[in-house]
Structure formats: C-alpha cells, structure tokens
Amino acid sequence: MKVVVVSDTHMPKMAKQLPDRLLAELEHTDAIIHAGDWTDSSVFHALRQYAPVYGICGNNDGPGLVRRLGFRRIVQIEKVKVGIVHGHGPGRREETETRAIRSFASNEVDVIVFGHTHIPLKKTKEGILLFNPGSLTDKRRAGCCTFGILKIEGRRLFAEHVVLPSK
User: Fold this and answer.
1) pLDDT digits over 60-77, tens only?
2) CB crowding 69-94: b at 16 or more within 10 Å, else e
3) Cα distance between residue 134 and residue 96, in whole Å
4) How would DSSP label each residue in the chain?
5) pLDDT category, 153, cuts 50, 70, 90?
C-alpha cells in the first residue's frame, strides 16, 4: 500500500495549486495523510479526489477545519498504526519532535507523522518511526520543498522524502 504524506501546505497563501510532482504521485496512491496547516478546506477537497485522506489540523487552521478533523488521530493502515499530529504547542519550534512523541505516549503506534517545522525528518526512536514530510510550498530553513511517501506491506514500513524542483 502506498501512502502519500504531506504537511504545511499553507494554501492558497504559499501556492495556488498542488505541485505537479505531487499530483503525479497522487495518481497512484492508496491513501493520503496530511499533518496539518492546510489553511483552507479546498486542499482537503482537492486531495480526496485521489484517495482517502487522513488528516488533522495545525496551528494555522481555522475553527471549521478543527471541528471536522481535530488535532490528533491514530489510523491503522494494513497492520501499521499511524499517529498523526501537527506538533505545535507551547515552547520552541525545536521541541516539535518531542511534542509529537508526547502526543502518543499512552498509545502504541508504529509511526508518528508530524509537521510544523517544515523540515523533513525520518528517524527511529525507541522503535517508532518519526516522519515529518516537510512542506510542499514553504521551504523555510529546509532548503527545499518536500513531501513523503510511506510504503506499507503488512507490518513492514518504508519511508522516503520526495524533493520538489526549485521554483
């Protein structure tokens, strides 16, 4: 199963449309995860044309999206439990990873997908994959815009980042 992972789309402020490279991946995906900061529900509607969308809200999402999606979610994809959270909260941006981990401290998950920093990250901590896809539209300190792909085969999980061409 292929899952496209995005976060921090910040649309339409940072981009008017989804990048072509992402659209190409969406043509052949089984599910989509969005880790918050959509900023507009039009992004949700655009993504759900391709596959089921599992998403949560970030600190830049309005009350309508928050009521619909909430701030934290666990989904099971095949035999993998995926925790999804944006990672924002009190403290410095550098503490985003720690906040994301704490969000699922009482739940057993195999992977935590989060955003907020706009910086792609893939690492394992205490047996849990931590995956931040970066941002599709706003590279900030990352140097490039990115998104992610998770490939799930039963309990096996593979994660990669896709770097978008510079504008």
Assistant:
1) 999 999 999 999 999 999
2) bebbbbbebeebbbbbbbbbbeeeee
3) 13
4) -EEEEE----TTTS-SS--HHHHHHHTT-SEEEE-S---SHHHHHHHTTTS-EEE---TT--HHHHHHH-SEEEEEETTEEEEEE----SS-GGGHHHHHHHHTTTS--SEEE--SS---EEEEETTEEEEE---SS--GGGSS-EEEEEEEETTEEEEEEEEPPP-
5) very high
Position 166 confidence tier, pLDDT thresholds 50, 70, 90: confident
Q: How far apart are CA 131 and CA 152, in angstroms?
A: 14
Separation between Cα atoms, residue 57 and residue 34, nearest integer Å: 8
10 Å CB burial of residue 123 (0-12, 13-18, 19+) is exposed
Nearest to 94 by CA among 62, 68, 119: 119
| Cα separation, 158 vs 96, whole angstroms | 23
As given in the structure block, the two tokens for residue 58 are: 């970030």
pLDDT tens column, 74-111: 999 999 999 999 999 888 777 999 999 999 988 899 99
Q: What is the pLDDT of residue 137?
A: 93
